[in-house]
Amino acid sequence: MNKPVYILGISCYYHDSGAVLLKDGEIIFAAQEERYTRKKQDDSFPNNAINEALSFAGITSESLSAVGFYEKPFTKFFDRILSTLFKVWPRGFMQYHYAMQDWILKKLWIPHNIKKELKYKGDIYFVPHHESHAYSSFGVSGFDDATIVTVDGVGEWATATIGKGTSNPNPKAEIRKEIHYPHSLGLLYSAITYYLGFKVNSAEYKVMGLAPYGEPKYLEKMRELIDVKEDGSFALNMKYFTFEKGLRMTGKNIEKLLGKPRRKPESELEQFHKDIARSLQDLTEGVMMKIVKHAKNLAGSDNLCLAGGVSLNCVANGKILRSGLFKEVYIQPASGDAGGALGVALAIWYNTFNGSKLPRMDHAYFGDEYADEEIEKTLNKEGLPFVKMSGDGLIDRVSTLMQGDNVIGWFQGRMEYGPRALGNRSIIADARNMDNWQKVNLKIKFRESFRPFAPTVLEERVSDYFDLDRPTPYMLLVADVHPERQEEIPAVTHVDGSARIQSINRDQNAKYYDLIKAFDKKTGCGVIINTSFNVRGEPIVRSPEDAINCFLNTHMDYLVLGNFLLSKIEMPEDRVLNKKDYLEKFELD
Q: CA angle, 394 as apex, 391 and 396 as ends, to 5°?
C-alpha cells in the first residue's frame, strides 16, 4: 500500500498568514492564523493553523512529504527591495530601516523557521508569489484549460500576470506575461484607500462598498495616476505615489491633483470621498477589463481563473462575467495572500508529485469544527442557559425566529477558509426587514452605516432574485437585484440596486441550506442576510468561546452553537453588555 502524500503550504510575513494541508491532492485542512491569535490579518508564522492541520489529519510533521512557501523571499529581498531602496536613496532611509529590521530578524530565516517550528527535516519548496496565486485558482477550478489572470499589490517583482492553464497530462499553470513593481493596480487601489483614510491591506473592500454612493467625477483626474494601454499593460505615474520611498502611500502631489488633503481616519465621510471611491472603482474595472481581454487573446481559453487580492473586488468580477468574454469564470474564495498557501501546495502536488487533476473546489469549509459534546462543555463552564434541540426542531425554531428583526449568530461545522463567512461562522437575519441593515451595522458589527450586507440565496432561486444565471458560492460576484424584487429584500440591496451574492445548495452545506429552505417555505423568500460573525476590527470567530463572547457583547438576539440555542433575554444580567438598554429595546418592540 502506497504511503499517503501530505503536502503543507504556508503563507506568512506580509498579511493574512495561512496554512493548507493536502493529502494526495485533496484539501484536508485550511485556515488563517488570525482566527487563532484573534489579531486581524495576522502576518506571523502560522504555528496555530499548522498544528491544527496536523492534528486534524492525525499526523506529525514527520509524515509530511513536502512543505512549500508561497513566494521566493531571497529574490524578493535581495533583488527587489534592496534595489528599490538604493534607487530612491536617501529618501527611503526610514523604509530601509524598517525593512532591514523586518527581514534580517524574521523574513530571511523562513527555511530555518520552518524546520525549527515544525521539527521538520524534509524538502522545502519555494514557488514564486504569482505562480502560487495562479495554482490556487486553476489548480482547483476543475477546468481542463484556462486563461489565468492574477492581480495584487506585489510579489517578488510581479504585480499582475497572465498565464495559461493546461491539464494534459496533469495541471500546469504557465505564466506568460508580467507587469512589475512599482507599477501595480493593487497598490494604486491601496493608495487611494489610504488617501480616503482607511487602512491599507485591510479596508479596500470598504472603498468598494462606498463607491455606489458616489459619481465618477474624478475619473479623468485619476487617469493621470496610471497610463493604461489597450493590451491591459499599465504604468503608474510615480510622482503621485510615495510607497517606494516612504512609509506612506501618497503625499502632497495627489492631494493637489484631487483637490483635497487626505481624509483623517474616522472623520466624517463627505460626498467628495464617495465620488473618489466611485472614480477609483470605475478606473479599476476598466483596467481589469483590458487585462482579461488581452489575456484571452494570449491564452486562448474561454475559461477564466482569477486570483490575487484584486480578485476579491467582486464588482469588477461581476463586470467581467457580464461582458460575455468567457463562458466560465472561477475565483477561489481565499484569493488574497492566505490563498497562496493553497497555491504553493497545489504547485508541489502537480509539478513535483505529478498529481492528477482535482475536482472543482465548490465550498470553503476546511477549518476547525466542534462536536456538540465540546460545545455543551463550554456552555456549562460559562454557566449560560441554553436549549438543546434536534436537527429538524432546531431548523424549524430558528427559521421562525429569523422572521422580523431578530439577529442570530449561526455557528456550525467547519470554519470557512478565506475572508468571507459562508454559513458556518455567520450572523444571519431577515433580508426583508430594512431596519436590519442598520441594526446589524451599528449595534452588532459596530461599523460604518454605509456598509452593505451580502445575501445568501438558495441556488435554485438565484435567477428569481438576481440578474445572474449561475451559482456563486463565495460572495465574489456582484449582480443587480431584479427591480421588482428590490423592495422585497431591501436589507441586502445596495444603494445602486446590486448585491454581493452567495448561493447555496444542499451538497455544499446541508444545515445552512435547510435553514434557508425552511425560511423560504414559511415566508416565500429564499434570501437571508449573511455577514461574518465578528465585530469591527476582529477576525471571524473560530471557537464556541469566541462566538459566546461576541454574542454577549453585542445586541445579537440569539446564538445557535451546533444544536444549542441561546436567547439574549435569558442571559444573566452581569454577563451581557448593556442588558438594560437591550431590555428596553425588547420592550419597545
A: 110
Would you call 244 exposed, middle or buried from its count of C-beta atoms within 10 A (0-12, 13-18, 19+)? Answer: middle
Model confidence pTM above 0.85: yes
* 3-class secondary structure, 424: coil
Which of 282, 302, 331 is the last residue in one of the domains?
A: 331
- Distance separating alpha carbons of residues 303 and 318, to the nearest angstrom: 15
SS3 475: coil
Specify the long-range contacts of residues 585-588, CB closer than 8 Å, at least 24 apart. 585/555
DSSP3 helix / strand / coil % (the chain, rounded to 5) = 40, 20, 40
235-271 tens-digit pLDDT: 999 999 998 877 789 999 999 999 999 999 989 999 9
Would the CA dihedral through 585, 586, 588, 589 be positive or negative? positive
Q: Are residues 389 and 320 in the same domain?
A: no
* Enclosing domain of residue 550: 372-588
Does residue 500 fall inside a structural domain? yes
Q: Over the stretch 360-377, which tens digit does the pLDDT of each residue have?
A: 999 999 999 999 999 999
Instruction: State the cell numbers at 62.
Output: 514527520
